Amino acid sequence: MDILNALVALSNFVLIPAIAYGSQLALGALGVTLIYGILRFSNFAHGDTMAFGAMIAVLVTWWLQSVGIGLGPLPTALLALPFGILGCMALVLVTDRMVYRFYREQKAKPVILVIVSMGVMFIMNGLVRFIIGPNDQNFADGTRFLISARDFKEMTGLEEGLAIKSTQALTVVVAVIAVALLFWFLNKTRTGKSMRAYSDNEDLALLSGINPERVVMYTWLIVAALATTAGVLYGLDKSFKPFVYFQLLLPIFASAIVGGLGSPLGAIAGGFVIAFSEVTVTYAWKKVLGYLAPAGMEPDGLVQLLSTDYKFAVSFVILLIVLLFKPTGLFKGKAV
Amino acid sequence: MKKLLTATAASALMASAAFAGGHAKEVKIGVILGFTGPIESLTPSMADGAELAMKEVSDSGLLLDGATVTSVRADSTCVDAAAATAAAERLITSDKVDGIMGADCSGVTGAILSNVAVPNGVVMISPSATSPALSTAEDNGLFFRTAPSDARQGVVMTEILMEEGINEVAVTYTNNDYGKGLADSFQQAFEAAGGKVTISAAHEDGKADYSAEVGALAAAGGQRLVVAGYVDQGGSGIVRSAIDSGAFDTFHFPDGMIGAKLEENFGSEIDGSTGQHPGTDSPGVAKYEEIVAGAFDATSPFTPESYDAAALILLAMQAANSKDSADYKEHIMHVANAPGEKIYPGELAKALQIIKDGGDVDYVGATAVELIGPGESAGNYRQIKLEGGKITTAKFR
């Protein structure tokens, strides 16, 4: 019984939140890694691209809710997601045409593109706040829980409750589908293959007749779709607030770099590594250990490695360790 | 030349002594508030409140056998201790005030107290400084306040929770001076009363996700979660996450968390939770608004406290039959507290007469003044309970 209680407490406060958060980070990191692999720069505007896509989805969700269209138990935001993706695609294509293409034609160094992307970040940041405002926006609807803590306790008779929010389950399901689609696209389709070829060796790809502008366009389209999906899932599960997406940039970059920049598989692994370390390092293990330890040996203190204030510091530290000892990341990406 | 100087100085001294003697019937009260600075929108009404009490006393003609009360305003700036000290210095040395109604913000109040009021031996009553640090400041019995110390809320919280039969709580606070100060004073009071605080953890405002914070709070456990945060900020995020993960069912909310937004965000999900915020059901408030009669905004924060501060100084002078700080400082606690006839706003003339006739008054005033400990307001709190998704008044304490 005690072992079950420990397991449930652990799932409730560590495993489930970390899996959901990891999926959101993985989707974000995939976008960063694709840009890095194909366009060859670190896109600092990624967090705000997510915010923009999510914002369109929020606005469309509100409109759908006001005319009474819904998905029953599922959040209406899922219906609005394609609109968000389209809006975000339009934004990134316009940005690419107006900003990045100029520097691409100049053959600007990656570091210049990084600074340019910071400028883009500030503009997108302002745009989102200008349209929807800087405050929290609530757009979640549908059933809130797959299983709530109280029901779980009644069902199993355990002391610990287990809550699975429907948005957490949804996050994982949607993330799996998105990743499967992406890998299928990259590995099986002609465009996907040309993208990988362009990423591996630009000159060789050009010689074999791949149109670089086309590859760039497809990359942006995929990145916009991934970013919007990540943004909407994060907003549904937590809350939509423009500034929060800006803050997400750090864990997302940490995930991409830990996994190996340019490696899609690495981005997913990195997302989960970062999410799990953030949650486990700041979790107070008192309760779990209390169940597992033999009678009389229960810990008195909180058994917390780091206060939760230092959550963001965890991604920093992991980032530093990886850069020091394995600069190419876990999955042999490109060195930063 | 030297002789001339001495002579001039001597005659000047004599002249000023004569001047003081001739005007023994004038009482000057310094009103030192931040007329410029971060709370400049509040201070005009506060000063008006204090001056209303002075006018009431002057008009009655009963203070110290017909003394008139005049107000001298000075700017505390609220934030600049040096400027506030200089302004207070001027009030005492050049305007020769007999008491100070002020200052407003805790920082400048402490500076004026230690640099000017104590060295010169002048009584000061602050209507709005709430820092717990002022309770223990060196004041030679000269400093009082009609606003409660933030430490007081911690004690009130402890009393409420103990009465509910709760002796083990987890505490989370918003990471700023307000949250930290309140959490610390609560923890101190709660542990002194025999309760146990399992964890006292900060949370940052404006984050999207508080599951890690709630995970730590849940691991520490407790019968109730005390959320010393803001309802529009991280406080609500913590509560939401705690309910979702089943970590806590009931909460205790200090003043920053109580508002319409709380009902709106959580409805009946937090039924059974408790809380408190400053508030009183004393008839003094209504009477105060009545005598203000729209002359200024009587509901603006700390104006009733300002009225009470000025009234207390004047009543204490009457009780001591002297306008000298050293004499009347002993009488302030006495006129403010029971026993005696209860005095509400607008009844200052009655109070002066009672004191003159040798009777006792218990000044209630606009804010139900009750001075405790080192001469600060006990504060009045409205204890609330959440029932059926609504904030309901349990009682006033």
List keywords for this structure.
heterodimer, A: 336 residues, mainly alpha, ABC transporter involved in vitamin B12 uptake, BtuC, two-stranded antiparallel ribbon, globular, B: 397 residues, alpha/beta, Rossmann fold, 2 domains, seven-stranded mixed β-sheet, 14 helices, 16 strands, 20% strand, elongated, transport (chain B), Amino acid/amide ABC transporter substrate-binding protein, HAAT family (chain B), BCAA_transport (chain B), Peripla_BP_I (chain B)
Q: Low-confidence parts of chain B lasting 5 or more residues at pLDDT below 50?
A: 13-23
**Helix count from the secondary structure assignment of chain B:** 14
Q: Helix/strand-derived class of chain B?
A: alpha/beta
Oligomerization: heterodimer
CATH architecture of chain A: Orthogonal Bundle
Strand order of the largest sheet of chain B: 2-1-3-4-5-14-13
In sequence order, what are the helices and strands of chain B, one letter per element? HEHEHEHEEHEHEHEHEHEHHHHEHEEEEE
Overall mean pLDDT of chain B: 86
The computed structural class of chain A is: mainly alpha
Cα-atom Rg of chain A, whole angstroms? 21 Å
Major beta-sheet overview of chain B: 7 strands, mixed
CATH fold-type name of chain A: ABC transporter involved in vitamin B12 uptake, BtuC
The shape of chain A, in one word, is globular
Low-confidence stretches of chain A: none
